[in-house]
Specification:
The protein is mostly helical. It has six helices and two strands, in the order H-H-H-H-H-E-E-H. Helices cover 52% and strands 4% of the residues. It has a two-stranded antiparallel sheet. A hairpin with a 2-residue loop joins strand 1 and strand 2. The longest helix has 27 residues.
Length: 192
Amino acid sequence: MTTERWSRATVYPDMWTDPDDDPREVLADPVGEKETLWNYLKHYRLTLEMKCDGLDAEQMARRSVPPSTMSLLGLVRHLAHVEQSWFQRVLQGREELPRLFGKSEDRPDADFDGAVADPAVVADAWESWRREVRDADAWMETLPEDGLGATVTRRGDQIPVRDVLVHMVEEYARHVGHADLLRECIDGRVGQ
């Protein structure tokens, strides 16, 4: 099966959208290290949403290449879990929170395994992800610029807040790259 290249862009047909219409451009010109890291994170979050735009439940749940369980829906669920784990459980010390999607040491891939083609599962994934992003951003609002060097304890180790934020950017960058390939397999839309 071949897929047509599909683009909303008119100026550069191989791009996702025209540069003047790219909603991520509003995130330009941050001031300071905290704002820079936060803007990169916001940029990647918005890119994830763009990669999933317009897809139905079957497309969102479509797996990549066997035996992988990776799908766009799985990525949304996984990144909701990652947001909760780092921002709530680690940075805010809320270890008592139940992990999203039944993820545990016994079920480390529950976020991907439970990504099935059901509109209710898709809606729950987006609701969970958006809630975790809102909570993370609310916490970021309160973080002073000089708070990046503060440390938090994770599994007995002291970790600078800065490292957690850099890790979050890294996590999203990696998975948005996966999302590029997954979306191109679905309908031919390519990354930008």
